[in-house]
Write a structure and sequence with these properties.
Four Helix Bundle (Hemerythrin (Met), subunit A); UPF0344; about 130 residues; transmembrane; mainly alpha
Length: about 130
């Protein structure tokens, strides 16, 4: 069971890292008006959103579903913040494509990523801090 947990955790982190990298690649293509490349890369990014959600759900159901109290609550908040982060990424891309101000999207991106990282690595049992 420990090995599966280890690999699930690392798979989830890897999908997030690739997702964040793809997000910035899409933004770069959008800013350079390379619509075809932006569209293809955004579809790949959306596929990674699914991977992120699936690996996150597996981690949650395997590790936090039966817990109680603060750990359960923090895991739910982290899950919601992760979905919020995906929404903020899509908001930034959409506003950039339309030429609108992206301040609100970037603010939400920053708040959500801070919350996700603080809970995921700092507070929850599978993080790097004891």
């Amino acid at each position: 069971m420990g090995d599966v947990l280890f690999y699930n955790t690392h798979l989830h982190i890897t999908t997030w890292v690739i997702g964040i990298i793809l997000f910035f690649v899409v933004l770069n293509f959008v800013k350079k008006s390379n619509e075809k490349a932006a569209k293809i890369t955004q579809m790949v990014l959306r596929l990674f959103y699914i991977f992120i959600l699936v690996t996150g759900a597996l981690l949650w159901f395997n590790n936090y579903m039966g817990t109680g109290g603060g750990t359960f609550t923090e895991s739910v908040v982290k899950s919601v913040a992760g979905i919020w982060l995906i929404g903020a990424m899509e908001m930034v891309i959409g506003f950039t494509k339309k030429g609108k101000s992206t301040f609100a999207g970037w603010l939400q991106f920053a708040l959500a990523i801070i919350l996700v990282l603080a809970l995921g690595f700092g507070r929850l049992p599978l993080g790097i801090l004891p």
